[in-house]
């Protein structure tokens, strides 16, 4: 067996073991990723510890590669994830997220509720995790369904697709942020690229959500359940009642609600744009760094949205929001460990040489890996991290834009939302979908449509970027 074959066998066995551990055992994804890295490195021929060669150079050992990969990945993403989650917690608890949703609905207009919710989801998921946002906005979706007569399924699914797109494509959400870090892509470029590629995907899929809302027509009833019936055009009503309901709530103003999101994005994009045109400004470079920009956004949320709240109450908002991010950071770091093992061991080079011999566009390689990981593991963030960790080492043998490769990881992770995806069950439970056929026609179908459109965009974009 040749050395390159042994390396690739180690990688294949590592991934297979990881998938089996996650799907069939009680082993957590974090540990499964670390075990996969160890199997990959050992079979790939890495020494366990660092060794000094005859020429005086040091060969990196497996344990060192795992530690360095973990640390270097979190160095670029950990602080940003923490700040983004804390800011999102305040947006949720203060009512600012709800204010943004209602403002977008009013802006886009009556009878365009699906578009309003899709755009709302697109913006909201930048600072707020998608599953959390579905729960937060479920009452709004149900209220809109009751007062407009439109199916809650079509309305909520429109919100869900917007949430999913930016969750997978636009930093500072963990997945695309990790992909950008692993491919050494500027965060501002990733924001622009992810946002642009998501727009056609959003436009196409919303037509489907409007259609499926008529095929699965159900509206909330006064008992807390849902009434299912055949759709008739006469069921559609006005939004006056929703306007009255929202006017009765004590919500923050629009500009103070959107400032924590928009100002950091503007600062990051300003730094990126000036860099493109060759202008260097130390103040912009400082303020436009993701850590500083997100820090400013978090401070704006604290002092703009909850200025009269007790200090302990505000701290609790942020503490509650950040509780679930520890495991995200662990998984992100472990993905970096696997990627570093692939890189240091030489497996990345062997894999690159093999892949470049295939009659397959390079831009599809991360997509396919991410899609397979999404099928196997359910988590879009883990799928992006795994795809990026496996394909980033190939950049030395592939002549393609790192931005496109990082976006390909993200587009692949959008696909195949089904039974092992927590968001799949959150959506079905919140909006009364109990039949398997209906469940697949909603979350699974839209994930396939969005990723299909994304693949076409990637194949076209490779000729221009």
Automatic annotation (TrEMBL):
This is Gluconate:H+ symporter. NCBIfam families: gntP. The chain crosses the membrane at residues 6-23, 30-48, 115-140, 152-170, 190-208, 254-280, 286-306, 327-351, 363-385, 397-419, 445-464. Keywords: Membrane, Transmembrane, Transmembrane helix. InterPro entries: Glcn_transporter. It comes from Blautia intestinihominis. Pfam families: GntP_permease.
